[in-house]
Amino acid sequence: MTEYQPEEPVADLEEAPEEDPENVLEDAPGEVEETAEERTAREDELLAEEPDPGVGLPRDEDGDIQTGHPAVDEVLRSLGALDGTPVDEHVAVFEQAHEQLRRTLSGAGDDQA
């Protein structure tokens, strides 16, 4: 087995041009890492731009979205309660909401003949 031999010799480190430490950042490619404050401000701007998915939908006196279907309205109310609960409890609420919506959808049209 033979060892790999590069076709061109590697330049000696002593021959490398010296860099001026004052100008290193000016010549560096890419962006400089943003500070935590800048990142937070940018994220806040992006969140402020997100449209509310419920804009323009009819709401009741409590501000809950009204779809006209009581089972769906109840699921939406249950999801609205997530704001004050710990994240580790969200999965159970989502699973329950999904099951209720699945049952509602599977029975859609049964009452119409």
Q: Helix and strand layout, with pairings?
A:
Elements: H1 24-27, H2 36-49, H3 70-80, H4 90-106
Structure characterization notes:
- By secondary structure, the chain is an all-alpha fold.
- The chain has a domain at 58-107.
- It is 41% helix and 0% strand.
- It has 4 helices and no strands.
- It has helices spanning 24-27, 36-49, 70-80, 90-106.
- Helix 3 packs antiparallel against helix 4.
- The longest helix has 17 residues, at 90-106.
- The radius of gyration is 30 Å and the shape is elongated.
- The protein starts with 23 loop residues before the first helix and ends in a 7-residue tail after the last helix.
Characteristics:
113 residues, mainly alpha, 4 helices, elongated
Give a quick summary of the entry.
Residues 1-36 have a biased composition (Acidic residues). This protein is an all-alpha fold and 113 residues long.
Structural class by sheet pairing and helices? mainly alpha
Bin the strand percentage: under 5%
Number of helices: 4
Described by strand count, sense and barrel closure, the largest sheet is:
none
Region (Disordered): 1-68
Biased composition (Acidic residues): 1-36
